[in-house]
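quick one, 147 residues, struct below
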Amino acid sequence: MFQWVNCIRRFSRDQFNDIPQETRRGVLGDQMTLIFPALAVAFAAFCVWLGVRIINRRERWAKWTLAVTILLPVLYVASFGPACWISSHVNAVAPIVNVAYLPMMWIYDFAPEPIQVSIMWYSRIGAHDGWSWTAGNTWRNVYKLSE
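---
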């Protein structure tokens, strides 16, 4: 396990051209440090409220709502990689990916290194050569930057 993690770290440093954490602020920068925790607290409160509705009143709509509430974030994270892969092949929808997955890149900016490596690996596993997230949280072909 430890050797596998070191191999990925070396690969990420060589392939992804990592830059220091403090320079990767993202589009919203410090504003996300306020927005993200507020949304997390609101989401947790909503889930607790739904849990009470399910346990105390056994309402069917609450069960379906909780299932959708938990399933949507999972689908969002799972669709991140395929969206990057498709946009690298189509080459026209990269700006849409930049906007739609801005929260994923915020997580990338502030996450520990193993999570950063995983996010970058998942976004590039099916992409064309040269496509990567750049320092400004932009999904683009880095080979075209040098031309």
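The chain has seven helices and two strands.
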